[in-house]
Recover the amino acids of this structure.
């Protein structure tokens, strides 16, 4: 394999590994367990659903590159949009979790800014993955 292609692949892998925990998991870990809201039923129910976002994130970290490699560059945009949608839901649920459990709740503007930052990162890494698709020509599966 060419060194340039290997560097791009390793760079994409490193970028992907930067965010291994979902935002909901990070928020749950940062909550004050002694806060009165933490012991409420609403908070405990929200905490019980944190695993969903973590499982989705773990699955998408593996499935997204496989789908793009299997289907070709044409799949990069739908995969990126799905990833952005899941990330947006994760951030919104993390904010709701913080609100229910007495954590630091981001303002609507902060939340929108973080989602926009995720979108920008998705565009940047989506561009890198399409370059990998062009650098590693794939033949159709027969």
């Amino acid at each position: 394999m060419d060194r340039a292609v290997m560097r791009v692949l390793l760079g994409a892998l490193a970028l992907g590994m930067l965010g291994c925990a979902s935002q909901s998991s990070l928020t749950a870990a940062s909550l004050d367990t002694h806060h009165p809201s933490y012991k409420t039923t609403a908070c405990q129910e929200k905490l019980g659903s944190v695993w969903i976002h973590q499982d989705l994130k773990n699955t998408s970290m593996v499935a997204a590159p496989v789908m793009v490699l299997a289907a070709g560059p044409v799949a990069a945009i739908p995969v990126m949009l799905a990833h952005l949608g899941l990330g947006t839901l994760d951030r919104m649920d993390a904010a709701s979790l913080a609100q229910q459990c007495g954590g630091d709740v981001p303002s609507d503007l902060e939340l929108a800014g973080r989602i926009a930052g995720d979108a920008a990162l998705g565009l940047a890494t989506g561009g890198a993955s399409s370059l990998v698709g062009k650098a590693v020509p794939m033949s159709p599966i027969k």
In short: The helical segments are 3-18, 23-30, 41-48, 50-71, 76-101, 108-135.
